[in-house]
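Protocol step 4 of 6: structure prediction from sequence.
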Amino acid sequence: MATREADLDLGGEAPKKTGKPWLMIGGGALALIAATVGGTMYLLGGKAEPADAKAEKAAKVAAPPVYTPLEPPFVVNFEDDGTIRFLQISVEVSSRDPKVAEAIKLHMPAIRDQLIMLFSDVDYATLSSREGKDALRAKALDTVKDILKAQGSSSRIQGLYFTNFVMQ
């Protein structure tokens, strides 16, 4: 037993630890950062968008609308129970694409022709209600989009608005 105790006792002193704990913590932090960056690159497919591209997309989305008035106001007459009625409507079309405004101005005669036909074919009782006006506005928007498509122009119109609506 003496030899066994002698083998275990190396002079009566415990061995000293010479490692530095901050070195282990730093290595662990570095490994964690590397894993985070690697995982992000893997999930994004290595195709992260540059900051400039993100700013350009935000600028395109946030472009202010361009309002194009269809002037002069539309004045049409229609019959209601034997009485001749008049309708005056001022219309503006909105889009965030300036090319659409140019196309509207270019094709203004065709747009005005079709809208005059649409507005003169309405019923007085229908136009007296909010729902009737909304339905007419939706038809007018579809008409303008259809004309622009038929002419080969961009039809990215966001809205059509009645800025003046008078029935007499």
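Step 5 (inspection) to follow. The domain at 63-167 is CATH 3.30.479 (Tetrahydropterin Synthase; Chain A).
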